[in-house]
Amino acid sequence: MTRWAMVADLRRCVGCQTCTAACRHANATPPGVQWRRVLDVEVGEFPDVKRVFLPVGCQHCDEPPCLDVCPTTATRKRDDGIVTVDYDLCLGCGYCAVACPYQARHRTPRAVFAYGGAPAKHEAKRHDPARIAVATKCTFCVERIDSGTAQGLTPGVDPEATPACVNSCLSGALAFGDLDDPGSNVSQLLRENRHFRMHAELGTGPGFYYLWDKALPEAAQ
Amino acid sequence: MTIAYAYGPNPWPQSFWDARAAANFVCGGAGAGLVVAAALSGARGTALVVPLLAGLAIVACGLAAVFAEIGRPLRAANVVRNPATSWMTREAIVAPLLFACGVAGAFGSLAFVATAAALALAFVYCQGRMVHAARGIPAWRAPQVPWLFVATGMAEGLGLWLALAAFLELRSARVAGWLGVAIIARYVIFRIYRRGLGRALAAAPARALDAAGRALLWGGTLAPLVLLAIAAAVRTQPWAPWLLLAAGLCAALFGAWLKATLVLRAGHTQGYTLPALPVRGTRA
Amino acid sequence: MNAPNELAAVAGSARRVPTYCYQCVAGPDLLTVKVVDGIATEVEPNFCAAGIHPGHGKVCVKAYGLVQKTYHPNRVSSPMKRTNPRKGRHEDPGFVPISWDEALSIVADKLNAIRAQGLLDESGYPRVAASFGGAGTPQAYMGTFPAFLAAFGPMDMGFGSGQGVKCYHSEHLYGEYWHRAFIVAPDTPRTEYIISCGMNIEASGGVAGVARHADARIRGLKRVQVEPHLSVTGACSAEWIPIRPKTDAAFLFALMHVMLAAPRERLDIAFLAGHTASPYLVGPHGYFLRDPASRKPLLHDTRSGAAAPFDAPGATPALEGRYEADAIEIGPDDEVLAQGRLQGTTAFTLYAEHMAQYTPEWAQGVCEVPAATIRRIANEYLDHARVGETIVVDGVTLPFRPVAVTLGKTVNNGWGGYECVWARTMLAALVGALEVPGGTIGTTVRLNRTYNDRHKSVKAGLDGFMDYPLNPTDKARWKPKPNIRNAYRTMVPLAADGPWSQALGPTHFSWMFLDETPKGLPRVTLPDLWIVYRTNPAISFWDTPGLQEKMARFPFVVAFAFTRDETNHYADILLPEAGDLESLQLIRIGGTKYVEQFWDHAGFALRQPVVAPEGDVRDFTDIATELARRCGLTDKYVDAINRGIACVPLKVAGHDFSLPANQSPSCEAVWDAVCKAASAEVSEGREVHGLDWWREHGTMTHPYSQVEWFLYPTLERMNLRFELPYQERLQRVGAELGRRLHEHDMRWWDTQLLEYRALPEWHDFPGLWDEALRDAGAEPSDYPLWLLTARSMQYAWGGNMAMQLMKEVADNVTGHRGVIVNASTARRLGIEDGDEIELSVPHRTTRGRAVVREGIRPDTLLAIGQFEHWVTPFAKDIGNASLNSLAAMSLKLTDSTGSGCDVVRVRLARAGAKS
User: Fold this and answer.
1) In whole angstroms, what is the distance from residue C132 CA to residue C574 CA?
2) B236 lies within 8 A of chain A by CB
């Protein structure tokens, strides 16, 4: 089996938003719709303050709350763990969006373009009416994964098969790979580092891990 | 052109369900409650038909409001595709049955009235479960939410029945008693719910919810109880029904206010929390 | 030699085109653009370049704005001419479209008239001025225009748009002086401990900076960020120390104090004695004691027990102590100050005694960093320095000193910049961590030649040091008459006199002196014609309202224009050049280059038309060629190209690709020849590839040894010393400059002359802002807060203010939606997050939104980026406050290098609140 997962190393991330911009490019999302984004979090009080950059987006959960609530079955989970949205089935009720503890879902009621009014050439070229007024979210760039694996490429290793945000990440904070493969980059990162998943207490089983320190010596062995 | 963004890390108000969705929950609960009240009243004829149809109409208004909110109304029929897990699908399946039985009860066999009441209860329960399943919103996903929805729906419906009773000159003692039970139950469940949330709520939704809770206590619970008590004491007086009307309206309006608050002003996301901070380069 | 494999094909009619982004100084980034049916749709890293690029071939966030930039609805899409002769902020220029022929005729006629009249005006200043954006990045987009500039003759390139006050000015000048380090960086891949005073590397270091530091953090690098606010870099550091603004010198001095108080063996004695001027004997008047015959500086040879010239074979110099010697002491203007048996003190002893006063306890009172913290950091630095260890780099054994100190803007420029840069360099020298693996190293040179190889720029000078092209200050050669309006050659010896020097002078003087030229300088005049490209000084410099008023007086302005903006609002002609994804150019990549571009490869990269140009725009090379033709300069223009001004000499390694000088070359012909010459250079003549090959492959490089990253081996080989710690030469230069100026009755630079000290001292640098407020008739306590600024990675350079995508993603980073205010300060002033606030200086106020955060000192405000646009599309609706409109151009706040820094004292209030 394959379980695709993403790993974000919080020690590396600098909050540059290159992944955000790359995702906007790769997925041609409208202005303001950031399937991948990086939050700028401040913890503590002056002068004992820490600032953390936190990449967020769809966590492609094992038990996606969005999946259960979806009345249309537009939201599905593939065997490889990727949670998808069928734009042709979705009725745009927004239920999945409020069900998602990660605020990863978006709905654009009408076509929006960067400079208002008419779309620029590149926007017109890539505008997809099917995505208006329905739920959209990060797909782990599923088309890249599918076409890449079909060509025998390895997601997370070969750029052609890897999510755009990971390809773009300047600091190497984002990694992608198969959790079920103990030799994959993500499996290795998780072995070698301490990590958490966002809102783990909710039991959603996110496929998105945050690294924050190297593993304790005994854990790494 | 300026584009507004609302992203964390701190909790922020959900923006997907607006007043139209809130109207569905307010109307759905109150309308279903009214259907149940009609059945409980034991009334017949006009005294049954009017509240029963009014309840259905209110439920329909709520559904119409939410229909106006969905992004792709032409695909509304797709809503029924996931009965296995989606409480929205279940709500959507129960609704037509409720209407059918309600209408049948009003104009056909009385046996359908009880069925309609059961479906109304099911409908409001579906709504409660639907909100409860919205796990992105801490104020919604609390385990008491379905029961809070049932209790508020009943209290509001019974309150509306009493209000109608004043105009229809119906015998209302039984329903008044049920209302007393419902509003007490509603407030008790609310308190348990609120205590259960504890500090899980961000400041803004907590403030909104607490304000609505205070209103529920004074306007939606104590006031109608006092009014019901006075009405019981002076039931022979010609103006006693007006006390019941006031009690009913108080119960309904403050309950609606609570529900609307819950959807619109307490519907903040969870935001993000960091169970550990990154160790950047070295340990301190 | 490396050439990337053919880029992977993409489906259907789509293709990926390799090109580069060099919008900012931290570039270039190598990227591909996906083109679908002739329309650019996506930017991606050039994955084929991952193996050669120090940032693993990734592409900065800004490059993702290039698609929007190409198709921006508000692009200037044809040449325009002004129809309203009145100029002013509130005057509509009345631009109307004209043909290229008309536009170039108008410009060429003006230029020819100027040539006929004489290239210099009555004051001796060039009649033509040109301003380009910072740090040379526009050159990566202006094709062969530099060849036109060279052919044309003298131009004034000293009208700054922020250069000098918004660059690492003291670092540029002193860094290059001391260790050929126009920019200084840590040897990030090897260093273990960095003290970073305000260096915002995660925001300004580009792809390479971000990647290298992220790798280093995982490796275990400890970086201590010393800065008044918790910047992006502070966030990514192990520790944040919120220092009081403009007191970094005190902090750094105290670090040195602690290190000098530590046992000597913790320092790199061998390095200090053998590779610096530490053992040089300093005479009673503060100048080196010299050998009476050879005039070489003397040191005390412990073996012979007598003085010896610094380069005496076999001498073992005494690092510390006082010794007598038969010597001569020579002061300014070759004056003999003393001779005979003189007492000399080693430079190191003077230095150590000088630093004794700067205790951590003293520093705590100045910079508000606890003394214990200062001691701890100094000791951590020593602990990590690994004095005595070596490392093998590419087969060469070198000293290994994995500690570094870096400085950021406002620390390394303006008053205090000299002290900080000196302290930083000395902190490295004390443990031998200067220009060695793991240590503090330079990136490139811009004042010395050759630009592409800083090792070749090392030439033996006097006294055992590297030569440096100081502008002369002796009576015979000092030039009282400046060649351009900012007077760098007259006033700033360290600015040198090369092509980059004009922009490294006091570029605000060009603007300031338009109103009142100080005594002794020829009256500063308006240029007859001003060329502007990739810069918007009406927003990006200081005193922007005043600057705009001056711009309105410029008689004729030619602006290369992407969109309308606040500077080209005053233009007479707008020339829309083909954009980043529409035009052709080859540039050098690799080697070592700022900010953290340390490559294992070197070579070239092509920028090529990815898509057809939008509108009636022209490639810059075509514009330059046509202007040269119309000015009758084609032969000189082509000659400049042949000599290599467009990237590489066309005669190289047994090949001659020179263009015929008697005809105007096409754009493709120029770059085809350049491509061929470049490939011949990379392959040492073995391969010649024309433009078509480069269009397909994008880059071509050869390996570049990491040994080249470090200057130490070169100095060692040439038997040269770092000119540290004692600044005898600068002291002399300062004294001479003072004499020259006084001889011309110029006394307005006297305060600046005080900076020429052999051993830098702490002065109350923050107090200068108090004085400036008093001079403005204000009470300093009425303006209690320090307004600072910081780099916005998402917006900086490249005209990104007009990009919706950049605003969208920048807004995710704190501070891009307003001015950052400390939470307790905000509470005290009744300000809540998001409130509209007023920032005031005497006689000027600006407005923005409050961003309330904990990660900033209570006495500090931070306005990221540069805003307050009123013409630039999209940007004009952002509504953020900017430091630039509040910052005054002030002689008082200008240091001796001609630099100021981005610091303004302000009053803060909620908008509408009563003060």
Assistant:
1) 15
2) no
Q: Which two tokens stand for residue C152?
A: 């044309």
How many CA within 13 A on the CB side of residue C603? 27
Chain C partners within 8 Å of A213 (Cβ)? none
Residue that has been written with the tokens 């054994």 in this structure:
C397
- Contact C220/B at CB under 8 A: yes
Please check whether residue A213 touches B, CB under 8 A: yes
Chain A residues with CB inside 8 Å of B200's CB? none
Position C882, amino acid: S
- Can you say whether the dihedral through the CA atoms of C598, C603, C607, C610 is positive or negative? negative
**Cβ pair A139, A131 in contact under 8 A:** no
Query: How would residue B239 be classed by pLDDT, with cut points 50, 70 and 90?
Result: confident
- Note the pLDDT tens digit of each residue in C321-348: 999 999 999 999 999 999 999 999 999 9
Chain A residues inside the 8 Å CB shell of B17: 94, 98
Q: Which residue has the tokens 């006092």?
A: B226
Which residue do the tokens 């929006």 mark? A112
CA distance C655 to C680: 8
Q: If contacts are CB pairs under 8 Å, which of residues 8-67 in chain B contact chain A?
A: 8-9, 14, 16-17, 21, 66
Q: Smallest CA–CA separation between A152 and chain B, in Å?
A: 35
Distance CA C653, CA C677 (A): 8
- Residue A217, SS3? helix
Where do the domains of chain C lie, and which CATH numbers do they carry? 80-164+506-575 (3.40.50.740), 169-447+713-740 (3.40.228.10), 764-910 (2.40.40.20)
d(CA C723, CA C466): 8
Look up the pTM and report it.
0.96
For the domain spanning A4-201, the CATH number is: 3.30.70.20
pLDDT digits (tens, 9 = 90+) for B8-65: 578 899 999 999 999 999 999 999 999 999 999 988 899 999 999 999 999 999 999 9
Helix (H, G, I), strand (E, B) or coil at C810: helix
- Residue among A43, A54, A70 whose CB faces B86 most closely: A70
Domain boundaries, chain B: 19-264
B19-264 CATH fold? Formate dehydrogenase/DMSO reductase fold (1.20.1630)
Give the start-to-end residue ranges of the domains of chain A: 4-201
| Residues C789-822 pLDDT 10s | 999 999 998 789 999 999 999 999 999 999 999 9
Bin C571: left if φ > 0, else alpha if -120 < ψ < 50, else beta: beta
Q: How far apart are CA C278 and CA C290, in angstroms?
A: 15
Contact assignment for B3 to C804 by CB distance below 8 Å: yes
How far does B70 lie from chain A, in Å, by closest CA?
Answer: 5
Torsion of CA B258, B260, B266, B270, to 10 degrees: 130
C-alpha to C-alpha distance for A136 and C233, rounded to whole angstroms: 33
Check if the beta carbon of residue C759 is closer than 8 Å to that of residue C727: yes
Interface of B with C (CB under 8 A): 1-3, 5, 7, 280-282, 284
Query: What is the Cα Rg of chain B in Å?
Result: 21
Contact C237 B2 (CB under 8 A): no
Residue ranges of A 62-91 with Cβ closer than 8 A to chain B: 65, 67-74, 89-91
Q: Is B110 helix (H, G, I), strand (E, B) or coil?
A: coil
Residue type, B132: H
For residues B263 and B19, give the distance between their C-alpha atoms in angstroms, rounded to a whole number: 8
Q: If you search the block for the tokens 């060849």, which residue do you land on?
A: C147
Instruction: List the 137-196 stretch of C: residues with Cβ below 8 A of B.
Output: none
Question: Could you check whether the bond before residue C518 is cis, i.e. omega within 30 degrees of 0?
Answer: no
The tokens for C41 are 């749709």
Q: Minimal Cα–Cα distance from C737 to chain A, Å? A: 45
Supply the pLDDT for residue C784: 98
